[in-house]
């Protein structure tokens, strides 16, 4: 019986997940979650703008649905996320707060979410996307006000309020190419550890392409490159996860392009299976119908494992084959 997560379990790893937006009108999504996934990442519901739209005014209606969904269906949740520059309300980013006040705002936010979802979050993305592509720190209200200490401070608060069993992650994109950014992620792991603070893993988002597109000149790297990138942080004693996998192309797709994409998904899965501390993989959505890509990169997309009619694409078989590569 084909199932992504059952094969992943056979490979001795923890999970296969999907980004999830709960849509009550799409029954196929629910069936696919049941059959193929044992984990999900709430696509937007736990972000700052969704949970604390104004200061100390918390709105949990949407996020609570995801917590309940996980409990009901016995799924892991990769909780996403505490500290990010994006989908951050203007009251935080333009508030003009001094260092001390901003740290207090950060603690209050982390404390409130971590406590509320203590028994459902398997992993938390504690800090998301702190790096520029050249490996330096991205300018944001966090970095510009607090400096690089904002990272260990965020992880210290997370550790204080989450369950001991919840794994704490740093998460970023373009870490898959062994660029300066990969080295930046390794530097972050060391920085957090140098403060004596717990970090359990690094998330490699893996928003990749199967061919050159205007948004990205470099297609998905070869398997060795991917493995080396994963080891750049896992060798430091943390777990690694592909957290947001999709492999986009210039649309429309053709059978030939779908084959190239399937091969890319296979390499990604193989690289995870080849690295001992790669504990799981999450794809960033189920059907091409709802992917974030066409809205952000026009004329690109078709990046997921199911097409817009919920038919399994060659990418599904490629991904499964990669998982079963050992
Ligand atoms: O819900 C509103 C709707 O009411 C409104 O009419 C509509 C008009 O624009 O917007 C809707 O909100 C959108 C939301 O997705 C829900 O669909 C936002 O505009 C849109 O910006 C938001 O996009 C999300 C994006 O993060 C924002 O940065 C995507 O769904 C989500 O897939 C994407 O996920 C990110 C990860 O969190 C971090 N890594 C990169 C990844 C892809 O960008």
Write a compact overview of the structure shown:
It holds the Pfam family Glyco_hydro_10. The chain is of the alpha/beta class. Helices cover 41% and strands 18% of the residues.
Bound molecules: ligand G3I
Instruction: State the share of residues found in helices, binned by percent.
Output: 40-55%
Radius of gyration: 19 Å
Structural class: alpha/beta
Low-confidence stretches: none
- How much of the sequence lies in strands comes to 15-25%
Q: How far apart are the first and last residues' alpha carbons, in Å? A: 17 Å
Shape annotation: globular
**Tally the helices: what do you get?**
13
Oligomer: single chain
H-E order: HEHEHHEHHEHHEHEEHEHEHEH
Average pLDDT for all residues: 98
Number of E-type strands? 10
**Lateral arrangement of strands in the main beta sheet:** 1-2-3-4-5-6-8-9
Main location: secreted
GO molecular function: endo-1,4-beta-xylanase activity
Family: Belongs to the glycosyl hydrolase 10 (cellulase F) family.
Pathway: Glycan degradation; xylan degradation
Structure overview:
The protein has 326 residues and is an alpha/beta fold. The chain is 41% helix and 18% strand. It has 13 helices and ten strands. It has an eight-stranded parallel beta barrel, surrounded by seven helices. Strand 8, helix 11 (255-274) and strand 9 (278-283) form a beta-alpha-beta unit. It is globular. The relative contact order is 0.12. The model has no long low-confidence stretch (mean pLDDT 98). The structure holds ligand G3I. The site of ligand G3I has 7 residues, from loops.
């Amino acid at each position: 019986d084909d199932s992504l997560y059952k094969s992943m379990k056979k490979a001795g790893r923890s999970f296969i997940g999907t980004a999830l937006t709960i849509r009550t009108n799409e029954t196929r999504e629910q069936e696919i979650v049941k059959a193929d996934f044992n984990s999900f990442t709430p696509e937007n519901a736990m972000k700052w703008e969704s949970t604390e739209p104004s200061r100390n005014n918390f709105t949990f209606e949407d996020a609570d649905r995801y917590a309940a969904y996980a409990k009901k269906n016995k799924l892991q949740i990769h909780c996403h996320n505490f500290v990010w520059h994006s989908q951050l309300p203007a009251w935080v980013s333009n508030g003009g707060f001094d260092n001390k006040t901003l740290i207090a705002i950060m603690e209050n936010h982390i404390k409130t979410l971590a406590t509320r979802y203590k028994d459902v979050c398997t992993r938390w993305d504690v800090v998301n996307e702190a790096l520029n592509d050249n490996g330096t720190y991205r300018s944001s209200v966090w970095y510009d006000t607090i400096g690089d200490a904002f990272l260990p401070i965020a992880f210290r608060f997370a550790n204080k309020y989450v369950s001991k069993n919840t794994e704490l992650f740093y998460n970023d994109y373009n870490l898959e190419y062994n660029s300066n950014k990969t080295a930046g992620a390794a530097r972050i792991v060391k920085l957090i550890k140098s403060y004596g603070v717990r970090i359990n893993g690094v998330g490699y988002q893996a928003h990749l392409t199967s061919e050159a597109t205007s948004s990205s000149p470099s297609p998905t790297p070869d398997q060795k490159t991917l493995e080396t990138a994963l080891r750049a942080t896992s060798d430091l004693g943390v777990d690694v996860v592909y957290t947001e996998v999709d492999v986009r192309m210039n649309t429309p797709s053709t059978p030939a392009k779908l084959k190239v994409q399937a091969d890319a998904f296979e390499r990604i899965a193989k690289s995870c299976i080849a690295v001992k501390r790669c504990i799981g993989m999450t794809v960033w959505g189920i059907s091409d119908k709802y992917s974030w890509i066409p809205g952000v990169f026009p004329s690109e997309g078709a990046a997921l494992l199911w097409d817009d009619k919920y038919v399994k694409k060659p990418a599904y078989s490629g991904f499964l084959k990669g998982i079963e590569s050992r």
